[in-house]
Amino acid sequence: MEVLNGSCVTIPCSFDVTDEYQSNLDKTCRAIWFKGFFRGPIVFDSSDAQGSTIQGNLNGDLLLKDCTTTLNDMKSEHTDDYFFRVECDNPLKYTYYNQLVQISVKDDPQRPTLTPSTLEVTEGTSVSLTCSAPAPCQSLPPTLTWTPGLGQSQETLQENQDKTKVQTSVVNFTASHLHNRLEISCTAVYRKQDGSTESSVSSSLTAEVTYPPKDTTVSASLFGPVKENTNVTLTCSSYANPAVRSYTWHRADGGLEVFIGTGRVFKIQASEVSDPVFCKAENELGAGKSDTVHLDVCHPPKDTTVSVSPSGPVQDDTNVTLTCSSFANPAVRNYTWYRADGDLEVVIGTGRVFSILASKVSGPVFCKAENELGAGRSRDTEIEVQHPPKDTTVSVSPSGLVQDDTNVTLTCSSFANPAVRSYTWYRADGDLEVVIGTGRVFNIQASKDSGPVFCKAENELGAGKSVTIHLDVRHPPKDTRVSASPSGPVQEDTNVILTCSSYANPAVRKYTWYRADGDLEVVIGAGQILRFKALKDSGPVFCKAENELGVGRSNHTQIDVQYPPKDTTVSVSPSGLVNKGTNVTLTCSSGANPAVRNYTWYRADEDLEALIGTGQTLRFKALKDSGPVFCKAENELGAGRSNHTQIDVQYPPQILSSSDCTKTVDHLNCSCNTSGDPAPTLRWYMDGSPANNSDSFAVRYESTEGSGVGFISVSQAQWKDEFTLLCSSSNSLGSAAQRFYFFLEPQVLAENSVVVPILITTVVALLVLVCALLFVIRAHTSHHKLLKGQSSGNGSTAGVSQLLPSREGNEVFHPESEDKDIYVNTVELKEPDVSKPATSSEPKSPDMQSSGSNNAEGEKNISGETNAESKEIIYSSVIWRGKNEQGEKADNAK
């Protein structure tokens, strides 16, 4: 790996261990790197990453066999071979000396790589250039810059097959003729950890872009106007790669292109009828076409004409625009307008464009156009003055007020030239004009919806429209309806405005609002407009409109009031008390509009809300620690939350592992912790007999919801060489019990004045006593098995055949479950002020650390020796286990 001086390097690394050491990979393992050779100096230790010779970080997770490491601030003297070692606080210690990493620290980084290395494309081709630069320091990857900027580039940090990183930048652009011979470079800039000057390196290529002829132009040998029949030389120019191989000349004849010659230089004779010309330049990739060139040929005005706007017949009193057109070079400098009055030519105006009122044109007109070379005259133009229908009116019979359904005759009149050729009748419906009939005379039946009417008279030149006529038709309110603002769904508590509309003649004099409540109609307001706040239980409403002739009633209007979920509740099936393990169904109900779209279930865990399910129904088995639950119902407007629901789960008593005993000088104090529902009842027994409050016993019980604790204090007067205490817990669903066994050991005191023979005799006696104690222990073990058989009638009481250890200081024992009997040497019980040891601790020998070689094989033998030991009973302060069990555990861990 090549590394930049002053920067970091990330070493991709993974390792493997044989199956027998898989279990040794734990959190005590650390990564070590040697320099030079596999037993060379240690330059990095992950357990002291910042205190190592080369500071860095362990990026990988040794538990996942990932040893990827970053070494910081590399210098030239760090160039060398590096070896990896994994070392754990157990038999796993191994150096991978067959796999080395060569690191070379250099002052200048590697040049970036361009892909492709050369660029030869045709214009229009999509080009993708990739610039790649190694990134040994992943926290400071290089920055890649393209010169010149060709388009949007995208940088990514990619991984090679050897797990090293490379920074890539891809730029995409479309090749253009402007890119031909363009030098394109990519610069990689590396920053350094030590803050020194950045290092930059570049790579470049020169683009070769082929393209068809471009910027094709025509130049003429003579500039400015030329006289008719003059010879003119035209030259065609164009840029192309490869070069132009042929030039052709064409004349633009309307939409046609007429071939007239070849060659880069072309000669043509100018004339007044010369069409525009252009050239084409071609190479292997295509052709380029020039703009058309018009030769500036001088001549007097020709083809002089008059155009009229509007053309054809024109309406009376309309301004008519006359335009004089002529083909001349140089341009026409004077236009003059004349009216032909017999043999006379009367001047009526000047200018190329002339406006005149149509009614004042009494004869034909013409124009004259003049330039320096002569004049041109147009033909006479006649203007036909006509007009569309005017003064269009409607007469009604009978006139005045009419009753509903009366027959009315309408007549349309208009003045027009040429004469009216069609009459059309319309009803004005707002901004719409609805056709209701044709003909100069039209019969209609008067009704409330007759509406204002009018007629149109048309001839070839246009139409005339009458004013609207309103038939005064009397009727009671009709088409009564309610409009709401805002329309459509509205949120709760939104201000809503209802408007009552009705068509009536005479006008409505009274509006009344009602709410439809079943078969009842409850008056809720008056006036054309009703304002109120939208509520979720707003019923349908309607309005009534009245005038002198009657009443109109609207349809029912239901306001679509939307609101978030409300009244969210949880129902439980089965309800009431349930036994542990019972299938329970919870249903979440909520009122909402729009309907609930999501139901979510949570368990309330003190201040936390733990998600436990979704859907309107939740099913689960009842457990004693099910905890309070609640649901949330959501729609587009919000969420509603139910109250907490506690499932009342009943279960038989359990003796908790927190039960223990302590000893003072003259009392033995024990506590028994239990849980159950219904609340359990606790009782203490000594050697099978009830133990109640007396001079010998102090018994006390405390209970909380679902749990309880019983305390007993036994005075020294009640102690025996061996005795038992039993804690019994029961409720209506079952019972559980915990038995404690106690033994007394005599204390042997040594006299300072004992002579040597007596001392020897005492030592011998003690040896005999030890042998006797071993015999007693085995006898008690057999006795315990017998008691276990006798107590099998109570399924919640059982025993284990381990002894509390005889060690220095005071010890504590903890029953692991309701299926254990506990044997205790009362001399060794803990004092009240001694802290309770961890319940999962095991005895640990200082000899477990390897004193052999540093690789993993040297530590395997120690485990083997441990397995070879005899199956004797060992002592533990919390968990009692025979050495045969310890050996089995060690075997399982391998």
Task: Describe the protein.
Strand 45 and strand 46 form a beta hairpin. By secondary structure, the protein is mainly beta. It is 6% helix and 51% strand.
Summarize the structure.
By secondary structure, this protein is mostly beta strands. The chain has 3 helices and 64 strands. The strands form 15 sheets. Strands 10, 12, 15, 16, 18 and 21 form a 6-stranded mixed sheet that branches. Strands 48, 55, 56, 57, 60 and 61 form a 6-stranded mixed sheet that branches.
Keyword list:
3 helices; mainly beta; 6-stranded mixed β-sheet; disordered C terminus
Return residue spans where pLDDT drops below 50 for at least 5 consecutive residues: 747-755, 782-821, 824-894
Strand percent estimate: over 45%
Work out the helicity level.
under 10%
Computed over alpha carbons, the radius of gyration is 55 Å
- How would you classify the helix and strand content by structural class? mainly beta
Distance between the termini: 37 Å
Oligomer: single chain
Task: Give the beta-strand count.
Answer: 64
How would a crystallographer describe the biggest sheet? 6 strands, mixed
Mean pLDDT: 80
Number of helices: 3
Q: Quick one: overall form?
A: flat
